[in-house]
Amino acid sequence: MPHSDDLLWGAYGDISRFAALLTMAELGLADHLAKGPLTTAELAERAGAHAPSLRRVLRALAGLGLVTRAGDDAYDLTERGAALRSDAPGFLRSSIRMLGEEGFWYAMGTLPETVRTGRSAFVERHGHLYDYLARNPQSSELFDDYMTARAAAFTEGLVKRYAFPPTGTMVDVAGGKGHILATVLHANPQMRGILLDLEHVVDHARRTLADEGLTERTEVVAGDFFVSVPSGGDVYLLASVLHNWDDEDALKILRNVREAMNPGGRVLILEVVLPDTEEPHLGMDVDLRMLAIFNGGTERSRDEYAALLDRAGLAMGDVIELGAGASLIEALPR
């Protein structure tokens, strides 16, 4: 067992290590080093950085095993560091960049104030996350890139491990740019799709679905899921939606879905599901982000989802692990 002081000092150093990772991700250092070692001066020129400052960060990155010395003042990319290339599979680089975004950084830094008051300090300063993103296009682009990359990590598992109906319509509620819907429709060529999202998002979705050759099989609708969702669907997907809201707001969304769905339809909830124990789990980290960024946002356990679904007139079915920390909860009408 590590000494308690070791744990505390490890946590103390985490923010410095994250700042070094963020610098590597933001400056694209892994991309610049992808073809071989560079001197600090060469790397600084390509990354648009101050060489003496960059040298100090590279020293820290070498300690993390992400780069390695390749001469007196040159560095090379390691296999571990290659995970931060822009073309690397997974969503590590986009996650780091999103967590280092100014508003997200502020949210985590003011978590003590949020815990003191029970109100998100981020929301008190910036308003709801999606209003903040609408006002800040660069942040919105970072967030969209993160969500797209994150979705790619578990969407493959979604279409491989869940048996969608061979025909019918899937409604992707708050479907973002439409990458999950596109993947499901490609895997199920007799299905049709409807994507619902906010006005400032739907044009991106239309472009994605057009690029995927799915315009004729899809409809994109601008709307508010607290008011209503498109009716007549056989499958309703809520991917990373309910964790943004407290139980009462999540219940409004689920009841709107329950009212709109076809008889015999189903609801698919794609979220992190917390374990019943307090063992280390990705969901615990994500839950603190929800606490910091949203008023009422929360990750939930299987029992908490079952209780929420029951109040909405739905019964929990299978819970399927998809990888990348995500699970798929199937819910059926009661």
What is the overall pLDDT average? Answer: 93
Would you list the SSEs in sequence order as H and E?
Answer: HHEHHEEHHHHHHEHEHEEHEEHEHEE
Rg over alpha carbons: 22 Å
**What class would the helix/strand composition place it in?**
alpha/beta
Q: What is the CATH third-level topology name of the largest domain?
A: Rossmann fold
Describe the protein in words.
- The chain folds into two domains: 83 residues, Winged helix-like DNA-binding domain superfamily/Winged helix DNA-binding domain (Arc Repressor Mutant, subunit A, Orthogonal Bundle), CATH 1.10.10.10; 182 residues, Vaccinia Virus protein VP39 (Rossmann fold).
- Helices cover 50% and strands 18% of the residues.
- The strands form three sheets. Strands 6-5-4-7-8-12-11 form a seven-stranded mixed sheet, with helices on both faces.
- It is globular, with a radius of gyration of 22 Å.
Task: Give the arrangement of secondary structure elements.
Elements lengths: L3 H23 L2 H4 L5 E2 H8 L3 H13 L3 E3 L4 E4 L14 H8 L2 H8 L1 H7 L3 H6 L2 H7 L1 H25 L6 E6 L5 H9 L3 E7 L1 H13 L6 E5 L12 E5 L7 H14 L5 E6 L1 E2 L7 H12 L6 E2 H10 L2 E10 L2 E8 L1
Parallel strand pairs: 4-5, 4-7, 5-6, 7-8, 9-10
Antiparallel strand pairs: 1-3, 2-3, 8-12, 11-12
Helix pairs in contact: 1-4, 1-5, 3-4, 5-10, 9-10, 10-11
Q: What is the compact description of this entry?
A:
The chain has 334 residues and is an alpha/beta fold.
List keywords for this structure.
334 residues, Arc Repressor Mutant, subunit A, alpha/beta, 15 helices, Rossmann fold, 2 domains, globular, single chain, 12 strands, three-stranded antiparallel sheet
